[in-house]
């Protein structure tokens, strides 16, 4: 500690180490956080369901009531919520297609009660959707300020219509 | 800075930073705000710089006792 | 400029043996860093376990200059995961989110091809990434991926962004640091 430059170097190194330790401590606090999300989701109706270029395409509407606000901790920057439809066909053992997503940056935005049209079409890589049992999965990605990214989900069963339709029938 | 002053300086640096980190963390958790945590830590680091870097008089209270200059040439 | 004069005087005052010893110390530091990096690559299964976010296509979640920690292990890949991938021919890694995936069954699996078809989209983009893929390419596959993001540290990659935007700084910094290490007394 014999010169001012040396002292500056010493403080800088110690302060940086302290900063790293703080970052680690903050990410660890996430382990103690208990989330209590509630949600219910069902297929409300079909806007259209038809073959398009060799693949089945469906635009559906959903009824959703959910409260993901308890997933927010002090270290949560945003929640990326999305609905994906998960199903199996003969050609593909696992299909997961996102039909809706939303960026939630506050606990107010995490409370939803509405019916909405899917944002992205459900497009199969094939044409096996008619009458198929599918899983509607409401999932969310917790994106922190510092630390590990977390995922959570809730699964609901549904069934695709057995015939193609394009008249916006309610299900 | 004399030797005792340098020891004091190093001890102060270590403990001040450690203390800032702990207080910042507790304050941040208490107010549930990451911004508060880093503000308090930043303030603590700034304070540490202020105490450690300049050559304050209290670091020079035990000046080195040099031997008297020898008048013999050898 | 006084510090440069100090460094030059220092170098001139050293014997050859001292100089070699200092260069070896520098070499030790560099090889340790290299070894730690390689261990990280083994542990995460990813060629590039730490990446800097280079674009704003995932805002407000990730900004330019943030750092992501990647994992590329056996855990099943899923829609909603955040992969970091390279498009063939381009070496800038892209950080987006999986929008759709289709995993081929045993019956339709062609051993020459890939098992899983993946379509990605940036959170902050309006359209999916087919505009970025090669013309005619509809999907990317697991071997395009460097890994999935599992951890996040904000601002930590700012140095990389600055050095990419002003490359001269890179050379100046490394040269200066190298000189400092070679001439330090410990």
From TrEMBL, chain A:
Membrane topology term: Single-pass type II membrane protein
Pfam family, one: SPC22
Localization per Swiss-Prot or TrEMBL: Endoplasmic reticulum membrane
One record GO biological process: signal peptide processing
Signal peptide feature range: 1-25
GO cellular component, one term: signal peptidase complex
Residue intervals passing through the bilayer: none
Organism superkingdom: Eukaryota
Record keywords, A-Z: Endoplasmic reticulum, Membrane, Signal, Signal-anchor, Transmembrane, Transmembrane helix
Function: Essential component of the signal peptidase complex (SPC) which catalyzes the cleavage of N-terminal signal sequences from nascent proteins as they are translocated into the lumen of the endoplasmic reticulum. Essential for the SPC catalytic activity, possibly by stabilizing and positioning the active center of the complex close to the lumenal surface.
Entry's family note: Belongs to the SPCS3 family.
The protein's name in its UniProt record: Signal peptidase complex subunit 3
UniProtKB/TrEMBL annotation, chain B:
InterPro entries hit by this protein: Spc1/SPCS1 (IPR009542)
Protease as UniProt keyword: no
Organism domain of life: Eukaryota
Gene Ontology, cellular component aspect: signal peptidase complex
Keyword Transmembrane applies: yes
Localization: Endoplasmic reticulum membrane
Topological relation to the membrane, as annotated: Multi-pass membrane protein
GO biological process: protein targeting to ER; signal peptide processing
Keywords, comma-separated and alphabetical: Endoplasmic reticulum, Membrane, Transmembrane, Transmembrane helix
Membrane-spanning segments: 12-30, 37-59
Recorded family membership: Belongs to the SPCS1 family.
Role played: Component of the signal peptidase complex (SPC) which catalyzes the cleavage of N-terminal signal sequences from nascent proteins as they are translocated into the lumen of the endoplasmic reticulum. Dispensable for SPC enzymatic activity.
Record-given protein name: Signal peptidase complex subunit 1
Species the sequence originates in: Chloropicon roscoffensis
Source lineage: Eukaryota, Viridiplantae, Chlorophyta, Chloropicophyceae, Chloropicales
UniProtKB/TrEMBL annotation, chain C:
Molecular function GO labels: serine-type endopeptidase activity; signal peptidase activity
GO cellular component: signal peptidase complex
Membrane-protein topology: Single-pass type II membrane protein
Pfam family of the protein (one): Peptidase_S24
Subcellular location: Endoplasmic reticulum membrane
GO biological process: signal peptide processing
Enzyme Commission number: 3.4.21.89
UniProt keywords, alphabetically: Hydrolase, Membrane, Protease, Transmembrane, Transmembrane helix
Catalytic activity: Cleavage of hydrophobic, N-terminal signal or leader sequences from secreted and periplasmic proteins
Principal localisation: endoplasmic reticulum
Domain Peptidase S24/S26A/S26B/S26C: start-end pairs: 37-105
Transmembrane spans: 19-37, 168-184
Xref: InterPro entries: LexA/Signal_pep-like_sf, Peptidase_S24_S26A/B/C, Peptidase_S26, Peptidase_S26B
NCBIfam families tied to this protein: sigpep_I_arch
Similarity section: Belongs to the peptidase S26B family.
Known function: Catalytic component of the signal peptidase complex (SPC) which catalyzes the cleavage of N-terminal signal sequences from nascent proteins as they are translocated into the lumen of the endoplasmic reticulum. Specifically cleaves N-terminal signal peptides that contain a hydrophobic alpha-helix (h-region) shorter than 18-20 amino acids.
Protein name: Signal peptidase complex catalytic subunit SEC11
Taxonomic lineage of the native organism: Eukaryota, Viridiplantae, Chlorophyta, Chloropicophyceae, Chloropicales
